[in-house]
Amino acid sequence: MSLDALKNRLPEHAKDIKLNLSSLGRETVLDDQKKYGCFLASAYAVGERETLTDIVGEVEDKLSPEAVTAAKAAASIMGMNNVFYRFNHLVSASDYKTMPAKLRMNVIGNPGVDKADFELWSLAVSAINGCGMCIDAHEHELRKAGLTAEQIQAAVRIGSVVNAAAAIIRAESALG
After folding, report:
1. Residue 35 phi/psi, 5° resolution?
2. How deeply is 105 buried, as exposed, middle or buried, from its count of CB atoms within 10 A (0-12, 13-18, 19+)?
3. By Cβ atoms counted within 10 A, which residue in 24, 67, 120, 148 is the most buried?
4. Residues involved in catalysis
5. Residues 6+ apart with CB under 8 A from 66
6. Domains: count for the chain
7. 134: domain CATH number?
């Protein structure tokens, strides 16, 4: 499968999402590993079968096995961290903010790919999952690593469009 297959799954009312998938597939502000890792991590984060299948097909010959594993790991660890840190951010009681997380997060320190790539993929997933604390932390690390605002925004654009495509496919499936 591919981004073209994903676009073909979308109904006419989602024309903007189709156009955005096309333009993001041709995005040049990110190198291929950063770009396709964002697509893959985002697809794993949204978890919609057809979206995931099509994006896996798109990236299979564009990412190393290590990058595929790291993109999946970014979606996995952010699935946990985004809930935990969003809770810490939103809860009124201040004592939670000083408590240790007591959650394993080893992959963040040793993702198997360039740390900036993993941070970028984690940012895209955190944007999908709506965790402001994680968004700020990853954006800060990416700036320290030398990524530009345009590169960071491109990752979030990928996450937002993948999320929209998956939501549309889920909604259309619900109609039967």
Report:
1. -65, -55
2. exposed
3. 120
4. 131, 134
5. 112, 113
6. 1
7. 1.20.1290.10
